[in-house]
Design goal:
The complex is a heterodimer of chains A (339) and B (265).
Chain A: E1 15-19, H1 23-34, E2 38-42, H2 53-56, E3 60-61, H3 63-66, H4 72-92, E4 96-97, E5 101-105, H5 110-122, E6 128-131, H6 133-139, E7 150-153, E8 157-159, H7 161-171, E9 174-176, E10 190-193, E11 205-215, E12 225-228, E13 233-238, E14 243-247, H8 261-274, E15 282-293, E16 300-304, E17 307-311, H9 317-337
Parallel strand pairs in A: 1-2, 1-10, 2-9, 5-12, 10-17
Antiparallel strand pairs in A: 3-8, 4-8, 5-7, 6-7, 11-14, 11-15, 12-13, 13-14, 16-17
Helix pairs in contact in A: 1-7, 1-9, 4-9
Chain B: E1 5-7, E2 10-12, E3 16-19, H1 26-36, E4 40-44, H2 56-63, E5 68-72, H3 79-93, E6 97-100, H4 113-125, E7 129-134, H5 138-147, E8 151-154, H6 168-177, E9 182-186, H7 192-200, E10 205-208, H8 210-213, H9 218-238
Parallel strand pairs in B: 3-4, 3-10, 4-5, 6-7, 7-8, 8-9, 9-10
Antiparallel strand pairs in B: 1-2
Classes of the chains: A alpha/beta (339), B alpha/beta (265).
C-alpha cells in the first residue's frame, strides 16, 4: 500500500515541521512559507556552529562540468534549477554570478582539455567556447600568463552559500537551533525529513569533501575557474570581499575530522598553480563536510511512515536544490489534492 | 571450457580484475562489476581514513559484490606506510591478499622498486599474499619472484594513461623468464585491444580501472574488457600462427606455376 502524508485537507495554512536545517530544509521552509503555510524548521546545530554540507560547500553551479560524471536526471534538475535560481536569489538578496566558468589546464596537460571537450560533445552539451590565450586574457586577464588554452562554460555560475543560508534562516518560518529531533515523532499536518547525514536511511552514505577559504586581495577572478589535472579536479570559486573557496576533495569516506594535510596540500597547490597571488593569501578557514548520497548519486523524494523524506543531493546540492524543492512541494500538494 | 586458475590457493574463473575507483556512482560501479563477470575487485583505502573506518559504507558495498576483494596500498611512498596500511586492510576486509603499490615518482606514479622489495619481504613474513605492482624491469620481477611473491603485476604503461602495452619486448621477456609466476598486466590498459594483447602474450590476466570507470558507459566498457580478455586468453591457448615475412595464399593454387622469378624491367 502506498504510504501517504499524515495531513488532511484544510483551508487554513498547513502546519509543517521540517527536521534538518541544511540547504534543503531551509529552502523547503522558505518555499512553503511563500505558499502561506506555517513552518517550523528544527536544526541540530547552533546558529553559529553549522556543520551542514551546504555551509562548507563552494556552491558552484556547474551543470556542464558535472554532466559527464552525473546522469540525465541530475542534468534535467540542474537545467531546471538554473532557470529558477536568478529569480529566487534576487528575492532573497543573495550575491551570485552567472557569467560562466573557465576551465583551464597547464600547457603540459592540455590533452585533458581536448578530452573534456570531446566529452561535452558526446553528451550533446552546448553553450561552451574553446578559448585561445587572447580569449582568456579578455575574460580573466590574471589567467593568461599561465594558461594558453581553456574552455568557457557559458551556463555556469556561483552563489554565495552562506549568504543564502542566512537569508533563508530569516525567511523559512520559525527555525529552532540546537534541536535534534526524530521526524517520526513530530506531530503536524506535514513532516519533512531533510536531515541529510542525520537520516537513518540504510542506502545513504557520506562522501567527504574538503574546501579551503582564502582571502586573496591580489587575485582578480570574476568567474569560477576549474583546473584539469591528471590527478586532481579542483576549482576556485570567487566570493565577495576578495575571498575565494578552493574545492573540493571527494573521498568515499565518512570520516568527520578536520581537513587532512594531504588534502590541504592538494587544494593549496592547485590554487597556487592557478594564480601566483594565492601565495600571500590568508587562510581564512579549512572546512570538511559529508555529502549525503544514494548509490546512484541521485536524490530521492519519498514517503516513509507518513513523513516525506528529501535527501541524497550528493555534491549537487546547490546545483539542483530549486528543482528538488519544487518536486518535493509538488509531491506534497499532490497528496493534499488526493484527499 | 573451464579455464579456472589459482591465486595463492584461491580458485578464480575470470582473468579480468577490476578496480573500484572513479566510477560515476557506486550503482554504476556495481553494475559494471557484475556485467564484467570478474571475480576479483581491488579497492583503495588510504584516503578513506582507515584508522577510523571512514570508508565503511563503500567497503561494505564492495564486500557484498560476491567477488574476492584485493585491497591495495595506493598512495603509499614507503615500505613502512605500505605495511601499516596492509595490516589495516587485513583487519577491515579479513583477507591476506594485498596489492602492494609503493609510489616512487609522483608525476607518473612509477613504483619504487627498492621500497617495493622491502615491503614485499616484510609482508610475506607476516603471512600476506602479495600481489606486487611493479614496472616491467626483469631484475625487479625476478627478485620479487625469488622472495616468494607468486603474483607479479608489471605495468603496461603508467597508471591512468591508457596507453596500452608500451614495451611488449619487456613484457614478453618477463613471461618467458618467469614461467611459473602469475603475471598480470596492471596499469595502462586503455582499450579492450590492449587487454587482449596482454593475454595473447601469455599473461594470466589484467587489472583495469580507469579505462572502465571513466568511459562514457562504464558498464558496456566492462563487458567489452571481459570479452577481450576471454578472446586474448583463447587465442593464447589456441597457439597463434607464426608471423612470416612472405605472403602465403590461403586458397589452393594447384595447377598454377608455383614459382616465378622476379624480373627487372
Amino acid at each position: 500500500m502506498k504510504e501517504v502524508a499524515r495531513f488532511t485537507p484544510r483551508y487554513s495554512a498547513l502546519e509543517i515541521k521540517i527536521a534538518g536545517g541544511g540547504l534543503i530544509g531551509r529552502m523547503l521552509g522558505w518555499h512553503f512559507v511563500r505558499q502561506g503555510e506555517q513552518v517550523t524548521v528544527y536544526e541540530k546545530d547552533g546558529a553559529f556552529e553549522p556543520t551542514s554540507a551546504a555551509h562548507v560547500s563552494a556552491s558552484m553551479l556547474a551543470p556542464q562540468s558535472e554532466r559527464p560524471e552525473s546522469n540525465a536526471t541530475v542534468w534535467q534538475m540542474a537545467m531546471e534549477s538554473l532557470d529558477l535560481w536568478p529569480k529566487w536569489l534576487i528575492d532573497l538578496d543573495v550575491p551570485y554570478g552567472f557569467d560562466g566558468s573557465v576551465v583551464v589546464a597547464h600547457p603540459g596537460d592540455e590533452s585533458l582539455l581536448r578530452k573534456f571537450e570531446t566529452s561535452l560533445r558526446r553528451h550533446k552539451i552546448g553553450g561552451f567556447q574553446c578559448l585561445s590565450q587572447n580569449d582568456i586574457h579578455e575574460l580573466e586577464p590574471d589567467l593568461a600568463n599561465r594558461f594558453r588554452k581553456g574552455i568557457l562554460l557559458e551556463q555556469e555560475g556561483w552563489l554565495d552559500n552562506r549568504a543564502l543560508l542566512k537569508a533563508l534562516a530569516h525567511n523559512c518560518g520559525s527555525i529552532k537551533y540546537n534541536s535534534e529531533v526524530n521526524p517520526y515523532e513530530l506531530q503536524a499536518d506535514l513532516v519533512v525529513d531533510c536531515r541529510g547525514m542525520g537520516s537513518d536511511d540504510p542506502d545513504l552514505r557520506g562522501v567527504r569533501g574538503e574546501v579551503i577559504r582564502l582571502h586573496a586581495p591580489s587575485v582578480r577572478l570574476s568567474r569560477p575557474v576549474r583546473l584539469l589535472h591528471p590527478k586532481y579536479r579542483l576549482y576556485v570559486a570567487p566570493r565577495s570581499e576578495d575571498q575565494f573557496v578552493i574545492g573540493a576533495t571527494q573521498l568515499e569516506s565518512e570520516f568527520v575530522g578536520g581537513v587532512t594535510v594531504q588534502s590541504a596540500l592538494e587544494l593549496l597547490t592547485t590554487a597556487y598553480s592557478i594564480h601566483d597571488g594565492f601565495e600571500e593569501a590568508e587562510i581564512v578557514e579549512l572546512g570538511a563536510g559529508l555529502r549525503p548520497a544514494y548509490p546512484d548519486n541521485t536524490p530521492r523524494i519519498y514517503w516513509r511512515n507518513g513523513v516525506l523524506s528529501v535527501n541524497g543531493l550528493y555534491r549537487h546540492g546547490f546545483l539542483i536544490a530549486p528543482a528538488v524543492v519544487n518536486q518535493a512541494a509538488e509531491e506534497v500538494y499532490k497528496q493534499c489534492a488526493s484527499f | 571450457m573451464s579455464d579456472s586458475w589459482e591465486l595463492y590457493g584461491v580458485q578464480v574463473e575470470s582473468r579480468l580484475f577490476l578496480g573500484t575507483s572513479r566510477y560515476p556512482s557506486p550503482a554504476i560501479m556495481e553494475k559494471a562489476i557484475q556485467r564484467s563477470g570478474t571475480n576479483v575487485v581491488t579497492t583503495s583505502l588510504r584516503r578513506q581514513s582507515p584508522a577510523s573506518k571512514g570508508g565503511r559504507s563503500i567497503w561494505d558495498r564492495i564486500s557484498k559484490l560476491g567477488c574476492h576483494v584485493l585491497p591495495n596500498t595506493a598512495g603509499c611512498h614507503t615500505a613502512r606506510e605500505a605495511v601499516t596500511l596492509a595490516q589495516m586492510s587485513r583487519e577491515i576486509f579479513e583477507t591476506n591478499w594485498i596489492k602492494l603499490e609503493v609510489t616512487g615518482d609522483e608525476y607518473n606514479l612509477q613504483p619504487n622498486p627498492y621500497e617495493l622489495l622491502s615491503a614485499t619481504e616484510q609482508l610475506l613474513n607476516l603471512n600476506f599474499d602479495v600481489f606486487a605492482y611493479c614496472t616491467d624491469d626483469l631484475v625487479v620481477c625476478q627478485r620479487l619472484n625469488n622472495l616468494g611473491c607468486e603474483v607479479i603485476m608489471p605495468w603496461g604503461s603508467p597508471i591512468g594513461t591508457g596507453k596500452g602495452l608500451i614495451n611488449t619486448f619487456a613484457l614478453e621477456t618477463l613471461r618467458d623468464r618467469l614461467p611459473e609466476a602469475k603475471l598480470l598486466v596492471d596499469a595502462g590498459i586503455g582499450l579492450p585491444s590492449h587487454a587482449a594483447a596482454a593475454l595473447e602474450l601469455g599473461y594470466d590476466g589484467v587489472l583495469v580501472n580507469t579505462a572502465v570507470a571513466t568511459a562514457d558507459d562504464p558498464v558496456s566498457m566492462a563487458m567489452a574488457m571481459s570479452r577481450a580478455v576471454e578472446a586474448g586468453r583463447l587465442a593464447y591457448l589456441a597457439g597463434p600462427m607464426a608471423p612470416s615475412d612472405t605472403a602465403h595464399a590461403s586458397t589452393p593454387i594447384v595447377g598454377t606455376p608455383f614459382w616465378k622469378a622476379k624480373t627487372r624491367n
